[in-house]
Amino acid sequence: MFKYVLPASLLLSVSAFAQTQVVTSVKPVSMIVSAIGGEHIEVQQLVSNQASPHDFAMRPSDLRKLDQADLVVWVGESLETFMEKPLANLSAKKDLEWMALNDAFLREFGDKEAHNHDEHHEDHDHDEHHEDHDHDEHHEDHDHDERHEDHDHDEHHEDHDHDEHHEDHDHDEHHEEHGHEGHDHSGTDPHVWLDPVNAKVLAKAVTERLISIDPEHKQDYQTNFQAFMSSVEHADHDVAERLAGVAEVPYFVFHEAYGYFENHYGLNNKGAIALSPERKPGAKTVAHIREEIEEHNVSCVFSEPQFSPAIVETLIDGTNVKTAVLDPLGTNVELGADSYAMFLTGLADQYISCLK
């Protein structure tokens, strides 16, 4: 009996076609999505690992990716302003916005109140942050118009940036009046991926959405979710123990991006160099920061791989202050089942390398 065997190339094509197409905005989102989806999804990330989401611009090829995707996962419009309009113009709603998830823990810029580590690590209970929101109520049908009434990101980031940040004298006046511990940012901090509590929240939402899109592989997604949760909890415990030894050491960061991580682990950030990552501080601000470095006995000033470290070198020149690189996007972390856990551990290593 004659049997027709499909060519290997066609089999590969069919297999690739069967994968769920997921577009992500930034690397931390890709880490979590890849861990849950595994071999059943293809991830296309919009912002390259070497770029910053703060100044990214969509290309026609990016718009095509959004149009062809089965699912789009992003952080929120206050981080990725470039996403809001293209998503609104899609014929079908297929996005998952991290900051819009009911159980996501959102902090305000300048809020330095740390979480209780013991409660976090022993119970892994989101109640302290989320006031008993129900995970299952919110994942399917977010409404773009309703979900941002409490924190209109566009207003306080675009207007604040243009009105108060552009000119050096505005930087200087603000620093002299308020210092660094208040920071010029206002509103909700979009760097939600730096708190492992939020990583678990997105992982659950992604799991539910992938099961909805691809129910055939439900068991695999659930297994991947459980493995992810275990991996993150283990890394969270380990990082908390290791960072406890440097928790009181004062330092400066390049820009105000690490509040979730710092609050979660109780670190001692004394200020940010740049009020916004796209703008360098003026001469008066530089002098003021150097005064604060001396006043607070700052031992380290951190830079970032996505931005020029030249201003950091200027600030510490002639002092005994050390410098190191903090990478809030996990640039060099390879995507895989344990990517996010590796990201947490790697970021802790970066802190410890300069604070010890």
Automatic annotation (TrEMBL):
Keywords: Disulfide bond, Ion transport, Metal-binding, Periplasm, Signal, Transport, Zinc, Zinc transport. This is High-affinity zinc uptake system protein ZnuA. It comes from Marinomonas gallaica. PANTHER family: HIGH-AFFINITY ZINC UPTAKE SYSTEM PROTEIN ZNUA, HIGH-AFFINITY ZINC UPTAKE SYSTEM PROTEIN ZNUA-RELATED. GO terms for molecular function: metal ion binding. InterPro entries: Bact_metal-bind_prot9 (IPR050492), ZnuA (IPR035520), ZnuA-like (IPR006127). Belongs to the bacterial solute-binding protein 9 family. Residues 115-188 have a biased composition (Basic and acidic residues).
